[in-house]
């Protein structure tokens, strides 16, 4: 057995489908729940909202039609009479149940919302920014309305919004409840530890930047040098890590100042380099001895002499062998070193 509200909603829906108003569509969100509806409202023709397609959520209760339904926009336009956060339209008979009449159907409610888009009521403005723009700069308000129309069409087609100007002017989807603030974490008070005056004076003397004398020894640093654990706690880093960081910084400093050097050669590479250098010097300073050949002109002259028949043989004087100039220099150098006096040296 259906309730009275269920039967009244079904009756209104049948009347709505028999004579549907222009630019308005409505249907239940689920087949088994007739109390929640989704509607699409188009902007009226020859108005700044023409072409817009806005989704509206309607929820009835068990007291319908004695009380009005709850209505809110899913696609919230920039309008003086529409809440920019909740999407709830500002209509008198929806806000005040005493002004609601049982003769009103949900089709009449949707028609009222469609008419409200094109005919805002500034006296009941719930969006002060939109109302101020409508009064002070109608051109800007018209441009904003056209942007909302374009954004609603893109949203209906499943496309992404190209412009981010409408982030604060139009919203899509069911309005979310503001998150509940989390309780601040409990802060446990720090434990106060007793300290002797000697330790306090030693620590404070080391922390203080002023000195009574330039040669005054810092007792804190002296104590830290003897206690690696306290030194690590004080500096926040261990001694090996400090040495590693210092070494790394020195290497980087050397690279910046002197440039990057190649790796040092090994002993085998040094030996090969020395041998190659000696071989090169040997080729320069000790050339190989090769017999000199007679020039072509000389050979030709000898050949002509051999062809002459019955030529008298002329005895040639003995030619002294010409020594190699390099051998002569070597002999002179050896003789000079032999005659050196060791005492004078």
Automatic annotation (TrEMBL):
Position of the signal peptide: none
Classification via PROSITE patterns: UBC_1, UBC_2
Record-linked InterPro entries: Ub_conjugating_enzyme, UBC, UBQ-conjugating_AS, UBQ-conjugating_enzyme/RWD
Pfam families: UQ_con
Kinase recorded as keyword: no
Similarity comment text for this entry: Belongs to the ubiquitin-conjugating enzyme family.
Stated name of the protein: Uncharacterized protein
Species name: Owenia fusiformis
Phylogenetic placement of the source organism: Eukaryota, Metazoa, Spiralia, Lophotrochozoa, Annelida
